[in-house]
Design goal:
The relative contact order is 0.17. The chain has a 5-stranded antiparallel β-sheet, with helices on one face. The chain is globular. The chain has 3 helices and 5 strands.
Length: 136
């Protein structure tokens, strides 16, 4: 696992606006927020992303996300919240230490949601069959 900026934050080698910490996770404000209150939640154990994290650590991270969502929303007066995570470079992961974004959303804040593309006829079944086969 490469050393990352998040590892440096965990070791307190660089400053961060830490808003919450427990035995297993740390939450701090993103330094380039989409909106005020944009928070990152990370595990204290160094996992690259969803592809190598154990279920207990991932559950710990998501519990911290759940704990923080309402207080962040209230503190900044947000109308809603996006909660997401990128996994690997091709998906937009820039820091290779598992992290989840909590992004407060406001009416007319200008951020767009993704638009989907419908499957061609019969393609959804093929993809679903392939996924089900991969599960076994």
């Amino acid at each position: 696992m490469e050393d990352t900026i998040f590892g440096k934050i965990l070791r307190r080698e660089i400053p961060a606006e830490i808003i919450y910490e427990n035995e297993k996770t740390l939450a701090f404000l993103d330094i380039t927020p989409n909106n005020p209150g944009h928070t990152l939640v990370i595990p204290k154990k160094p996992f690259r992303n969803i592809f190598d994290v154990d279920s207990e650590t991932f559950a710990d991270v998501m519990e911290t996300v759940r704990i923080l969502a309402k207080p962040i929303r209230k503190a900044v007066g947000a109308d809603g919240m996006n909660i997401y995570s990128n996994h690997e470079k091709e998906a937009g992961q820039a820091v290779f230490h598992l992290h989840v974004h909590l992004i407060p959303r406001f009416s007319n804040d200008g951020y767009k949601l993704w638009e989907g593309t419908p499957y061609p006829k019969g393609e959804a079944k093929k993809v679903a069959d392939s996924i089900r086969k991969s599960l076994s």
